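Hey, sorry to bother you again with one of my protein questions. A protein chain has come my way and I'm curious about its shape. I'm sending you its amino acid sequence along with the backbone structure tokens. I owe you a coffee for this, so here goes:
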Amino acid sequence: MRRLIVEDPYSTSALLSRRLAALALAVALIGVAAARWGIDPSAALAVLGGSVGLAAGAILFALLAFVVIWRTGRQGAGQATAGLFLALLLLAYPAWLAAKAAHAPRLTDLSTDIADPPVFSASRVAQAARGGTAPRSPPAALRRAQAQAYPKILPILVDLDTDEAFAAVRKAVAASGWRLVEEIPPGGRMGIGHIDAMSRSMILGFPCDITLRIRPLAGQTRVDLRSASRFGPFDFGANQHNIDVFEAALEGIVDKK
């Protein structure tokens, strides 16, 4: 004699949680791809914002599903758990960025020389690489703010002549993983060399414009670096990271000489 076994139905909220989390992942991947392909940053951020909203919805449905399952005995705990885990994973990076923004100064342009920041090249090649723009010299108020927020960002001095220092700087730019935009070897009346480069953030690929000035001193060469983010009121530590990465790369190259 066969017995009819009626299984408890699945919680609709649990199924919705998993599906919303999967959709949030797909939308986030589209947003990251759009950002890295150079599509309008505001459009890419709008897509990523949509994925954050979907992930938040997945979390709410997962919590609702746990309540329903506890009270009614419906199935779907695994679905709700999967949706909750995936949604939290997707929200971890935006939450980390928000935490950094909450404690970071509103600075998007840092320089090792706040008294006389290096100037970006205005050549046709450099302008084209930067999308037709050139970061303006930061006003005095922002330079004072940098001095307070980043007191350890200082000019870089190397015990090399200018030509050797310029070669070491070129190698450090390559070691930092930056794209070389333009270079002007040391020369002229002041003997100053100049390099423009561009870095990109690891995940979204948003660009930072970088310029380096190589200036001869008595028995030394002074290297000044300026890094400027193109988008947003915060740089999320990207410009300080660029300066730190370059200094470490240049130190390693100079130490080998």
Residues 12-103 form one domain. The longest strand covers residues 207-216.
